[in-house]
Task: inverse folding
């Protein structure tokens, strides 16, 4: 009987002690710099790399991360394993904050997508691009405006005419208020001087369903997302938001060609926490460069997602990130969404 | 504490919550002209309905037909609740120190010992040893969940 | 028709190869186990196992993932019945009658009934899918925001049947659930609501920590405190033939299962609605038309059959929009779609033409998988039920550890662990003070969709509520929902008037 009481006590004590320890110590790997400065074989990577996807499995960023990992691993370009980890929530903020917290640690890398820029501007994220070290940009994605195959619209001009005749007569679907498609809807309204009805949905899939079902008339979507509907003859694109026409949609004019001075191109790439050692950044950049030149990358990612390949090294990518962030900041300022 | 008092207290707490919800709802936009309801619309109505229900709850305790049920909260129950909550929180915090797998094993070992009427040391040790292994095999090896890892690297 | 048969036969030649049968078996077994772990449902199971399938070729990979998907859908019922902890939202309704049955020593028949009704629902779903998928996909598209709103209202009416002793408390519980549902970034404006500056709350409160806290942890504390008589569990007759539902159980459940399968498939096919809502409506309907509705919630076998047939039919129904339109209808199918794309396949209308071996192989594997599932379940139910013979204190302690680990695995974040513990605390007080937990949990799920679809509809109609009655499908659903709300109210008022007259 006594033994049992003592045992309970010990267990309880252990819980309390570790509670105290748990509160006073910080996670071990924060701020841990790479000590070894030996001139031997490359010091990085000497253990597994965690590839953080700030969104749930199956989404665009997840596909990007897993495709990168699969090719790199199959080719054996990195000697250590790369583990893809999903940290979804807070429109990406949680995953980005998690990586930013690992300041100086090159064993954490993350994907970049639009909320990397927009969430901090809207005051929805404690970290911004300034907390990251860009590694490489891989591809440029854009948006195209889709209608149903049997829609009356064949060009953006017709949309504008109708919208001018009937303000708020056309319904446009998109995802939550601050995503790329919502931004483009506002830009279009602003530049063309029209008014549309914006109906937000929870996911890109639901938006597409609403378009096919005739519940909304227009949808801004990544070309890759809608490719299957286009091939099946259910939907078609009437205009793209990139600065040049894009592969797979050669017949579709750009907004600029149509006389609307607006564009949106978004870089998909990879970042590390800020202050990551330059050798590690360089190492990863080289691996990603090899990746971007591989046939597998072309087949498995670029073609499947109708995306424009464009490799940027870490310096150019850093510049591109600042430009994109400024661009979003300007748009948000205009539409009054920025959090002061 | 008897039920009547408990109902009155929760009634008041719920009323306070509902007022908070209503006020927050009002501070967000209720209606956006022809764009339909704003972000405050649904909270406002939920708050309003909740305030009505909590007032009904309070009133019902003064009704003669109100059934008084004896002994809702026992001392033992509160002790259980307290121990479980504290130990679970402790185990959660400890996950960063000794790793998720081990801290959950400790939690289960502790709780099994605590819940049991007849304490058996073998049960406790069994859980302490076997559970972490099972958790490790299922979640770490098979499912590859990135648990917080502790000083032992587990 | 003939063409469909030959395609299906072709599909069987793809599915019935030793390697694909093996993948299917692995998928069904791991799916069931994962579904049975508290907190891990189909979508979590798919997400964590997705990378494992990449080594396989696409057909085998997707066959395995599909097996995980419907295996997990069934597995959720195991913990619902045995330890009152739903593994995923679609299994909440199963706890309402499954757990009371287990407490009365009838865990075996309850699990048997869950298995058979899942099998029937799932198989019905596959058959309908085989012959009608393209036509149904078109019908599903006609569901726009107003129709979803009407469907959610109909779902909410089923809550009225779960209020327990005090209607006011049931109502309060549901309202608190609705309130929890609106926490997070507002979909339309992107403004945070009730998040108190916590990023973790931006994407809203997940259903799983709430359900595991309110049902699982709270139940464990109350059971330990009240020393709930578990003799019933211990003395349960575990001989194999006793696990089958009796002729009497079948007689009570057959129409419930038939209805549940149809409702489940239809609702499952609608993107965004899915298995959870299908299980609510099926349960609510079963109770409404039952001759003894008072038995629901206390251990009626139909109360297990209704949600289980519906959620498995729904999980098959969810393949309709995924494969025919290329749009995922639920979190689980979104992951499946991601998997397809990683295998280099693009789901959508062209899939049937371009990759027939894939589509028909998958469909055929669903027939095979459902049969495997029922065989496996019948073999393993005795094993699962034996879990109850583990001494209660140890079982409870281990279950708590699993619940917390499961909570962590949801988003790989400690925040969900804290939420689960917090809701356990809340759940305990609710139980003690006789607030029913189910309305809160269900309102949480429905509330988010309810608000979204309402606001989408009103944007489309420029603020006019008439949109809900102007379109045929939503008008019909609204009328059914409103009559479900007001008929009992009028009835009870009439009764009250009568009682008053008598007593006066």
Result:
């Amino acid at each position: 009987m006594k033994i049992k009481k003592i045992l309970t006590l010990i267990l309880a004590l252990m819980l309390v002690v570790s509670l105290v320890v748990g509160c006073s110590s910080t996670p071990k790997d924060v701020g841990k710099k790479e000590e070894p400065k030996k001139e031997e074989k490359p010091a990085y990577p000497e253990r597994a790399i965690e590839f953080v996807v700030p969104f749930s499995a199956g989404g665009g960023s997840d596909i990007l991360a897993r495709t990168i990992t699969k090719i790199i691993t199959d080719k054996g370009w990195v000697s250590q394993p790369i583990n893809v980890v999903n940290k979804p929530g807070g429109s990406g903020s949680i995953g980005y904050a998690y990586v930013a917290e690992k300041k100086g640690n090159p064993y954490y890398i993350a994907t970049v997508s639009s909320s990397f820029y927009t969430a901090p501007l809207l005051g929805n994220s404690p970290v911004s691009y300034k907390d990251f070290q860009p590694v490489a940009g891989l591809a440029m994605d854009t948006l195209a405006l889709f209608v149903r195959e049997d829609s009356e619209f064949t060009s953006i001009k017709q949309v504008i005419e109708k919208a001018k005749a009937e303000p708020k007569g056309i319904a446009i679907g998109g995802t939550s208020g601050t995503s790329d498609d919502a931004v483009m809807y506002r830009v279009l309204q602003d530049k063309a001087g029209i008014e549309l009805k914006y109906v937000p949905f929870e996911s890109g899939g639901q938006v597409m369903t609403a378009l096919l079902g005739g519940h909304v008339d227009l949808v801004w979507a990544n070309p890759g997302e809608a490719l299957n509907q286009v091939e099946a003859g259910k939907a078609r694109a009437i205009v793209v938001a990139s600065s040049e026409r894009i592969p797979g949609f050669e017949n579709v004019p750009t907004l600029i060609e149509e006389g609307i001075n607006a564009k949106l191109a978004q870089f998909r790439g990879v970042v590390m926490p800020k202050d990551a050692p330059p050798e590690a950044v360089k190492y990863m950049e080289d691996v990603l460069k090899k990746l971007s030149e591989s046939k597998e990358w072309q087949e498995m990612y670029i073609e499947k997602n109708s995306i424009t390949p464009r490799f940027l090294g870490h310096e150019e990518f850093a510049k591109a990130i600042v430009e994109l962030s400024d661009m979003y900041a300007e748009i948000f300022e205009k539409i009054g969404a920025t959090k002061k | 504490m008897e039920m009547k008092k408990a109902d009155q207290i929760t009634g008041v707490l719920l009323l306070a919550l509902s007022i908070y919800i209503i006020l927050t709802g009002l501070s967000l936009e209720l209606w956006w002209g022809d764009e339909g309801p704003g972000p405050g619309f649904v909270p406002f109505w939920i708050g309003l309905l909740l305030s009505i229900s909590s007032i009904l709850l309070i009133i019902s305790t003064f009704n003669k037909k109100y059934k008084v049920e004896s002994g809702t909260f026992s001392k033992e129950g509160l002790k259980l609740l307290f121990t479980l909550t504290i130990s679970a929180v402790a185990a959660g915090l400890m996950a960063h120190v000794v790793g998720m797998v081990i801290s959950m094993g400790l939690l289960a070992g502790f709780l099994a010992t605590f819940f049991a009427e007849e304490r058996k040391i073998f049960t406790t040790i069994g859980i302490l040893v076997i559970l972490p292994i099972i958790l490790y095999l299922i979640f770490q090896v098979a499912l590859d969940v990135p648990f917080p890892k502790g000083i032992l690297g587990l | 028709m003939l063409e469909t048969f030959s395609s299906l036969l072709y599909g069987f030649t793809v599915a019935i190869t030793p390697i694909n049968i093996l993948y299917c078996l692995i998928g069904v077994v791991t799916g069931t186990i994962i579904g049975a772990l508290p907190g891990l449902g189909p979508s979590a199971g798919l997400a964590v196992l997705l990378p494992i399938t990449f080594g396989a070729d696409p057909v085998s990979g997707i066959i395995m993932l599909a097996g995980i998907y419907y295996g997990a859908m069934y597995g959720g019922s195991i913990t619902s019945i045995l330890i009152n902890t739903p593994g995923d939202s679609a299994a909440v309704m199963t706890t309402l009658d499954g757990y009371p049955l287990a407490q009365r020593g009838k865990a075996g028949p309850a699990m048997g009934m869950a298995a058979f009704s899942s099998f029937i629902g799932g198989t019905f779903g596959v058959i309908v899918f085989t012959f009608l998928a393209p036509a149904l996909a078109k019908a599903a598209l006609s569901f726009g925001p107003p129709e979803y709103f009407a469907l959610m209202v109909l779902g909410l009416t089923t809550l009225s049947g779960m209020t327990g002793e005090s209607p006011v408390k049931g109502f309060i519980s549901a309202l608190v659930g609705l309130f929890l549902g609106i926490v997070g970034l507002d979909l339309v404006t992107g403004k945070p609501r009730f998040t108190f500056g916590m990023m973790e709350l931006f994407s809203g409160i997940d259903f799983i920590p709430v359900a595991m806290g309110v049902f699982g942890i709270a139940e464990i504390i109350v059971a330990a405190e009240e020393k709930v008589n578990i003799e019933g569990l211990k003395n349960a007759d575990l001989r194999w033939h006793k696990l089958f539902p009796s002729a009497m159980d079948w007689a009570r459940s057959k129409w419930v299962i038939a209805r549940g399968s149809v409702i489940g498939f239809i609702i499952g096919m609608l993107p965004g609605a899915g298995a959870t809502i299908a299980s609510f409506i099926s349960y609510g309907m079963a109770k409404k038309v039952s001759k003894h509705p008072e038995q629901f919630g206390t251990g009626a076998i139909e109360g297990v059959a209704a949600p289980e047939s519906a959620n498995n039919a729904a999980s098959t129904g969810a393949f309709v929009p995924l494969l025919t339109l290329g749009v995922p209808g639920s979190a689980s199918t979104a992951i499946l779609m991601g998997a397809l794309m990683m295998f280099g396949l693009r789901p959508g209308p062209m899939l049937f033409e371009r990759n027939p071996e894939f589509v028909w192989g998958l469909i055929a594997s669903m027939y095979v998988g459902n049969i495997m599932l029922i065989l496996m379940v019948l073999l393993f139910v005795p094993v699962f039920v034996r879990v109850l013979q583990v001494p209660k204190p140890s079982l409870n302690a281990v279950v708590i550890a699993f619940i917390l680990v499961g909570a962590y695995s949801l988003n790989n974040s400690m925040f969900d662990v804290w939420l689960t513990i917090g809701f356990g605390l809340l759940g305990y007080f609710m139980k003690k003070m006789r607030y029913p937990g189910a309305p809160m949990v269900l309102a949480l799920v429905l509330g988010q969709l309810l608000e979204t679809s309402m606001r989408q509809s009103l944007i489309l109609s420029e603020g006019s509520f008439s949109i809900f009655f102007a379109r045929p499908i939503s008008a019909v659903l609204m009328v059914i929902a409103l009559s479900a709300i007001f008929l009992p109210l009028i009835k009870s008022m009439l009764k009250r008037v009568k009682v008053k007259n008598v007593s006066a």
Q: What stands out?
A: Chain A has two domains: 49-141+265-335, 144-240. The first strand of chain A starts at residue 49 and ends at 53.
